[in-house]
Amino acid sequence: MPEPIFSVSGLSKAYHTGDVEIRALWDVDLTLYEGELAVLLGPSGSGKSTLLNILGGLDTATRGTVRFRDEEITSFSDRRLTTYRREHVGFVFQFYNLIPSLTAKENVALVTEISNDPMKPEEALSLVGLDHRMDHFPAQLSGGEQQRVAIARAIAKRPDVLLCDEPTGALDSKTGVVVLEALTSVNKELGTSTAVITHNVAIKNIAHRVFYFGDGHIVRTDVNKKRIAPAKVKW
Fold this sequence. Notes:
The protein has about 240 residues and is an alpha/beta fold. About 30% of the residues lie in helices and about 30% in strands.
């Protein structure tokens, strides 16, 4: 049995507007394992992104604990959270956040220059099938190619965890499949623990496990014993 990479207990996040309390996440328990590819499925406002942001050290909890391996990240100072994000976590968002004036290779190199044990930008781009596009600027790339550059940038520092928030949300179905293939390849070849947020029910088929969210809770968890290749996802 793989070791847990995240152990979450009683995790809650609330926001206040005047006297009104908005519960973004409430009393969530879950475990994510080393090398697992998990899909977090549910409508907008169900708590998926809030959970991902807390796991990634981008947000803090109102109460509850998150352990990353043997460390409780919910007790970290801002400085330790910054170190945690830099050393252990890669992020992929719906919008690519590439620097327009830099080539694909140079965008990836931004991360490798501040990492402890990075792979070469060329290697990261090759892993996502873009070794032939590394000298192109974002404006010269399609949406799917730009998202794959963003994935290469995220994995170039060899993160333990890859957290993806709607990585195919701005893409058509054909291009989205190519991006999913890049994510599953990284999960398989590097053993990177991966969590993917999506509204798209079809994407659940590539996961080891699927967590269904509703109203700030996990309402169901399914083990996927019949994973399929991204190319066979029916959008």
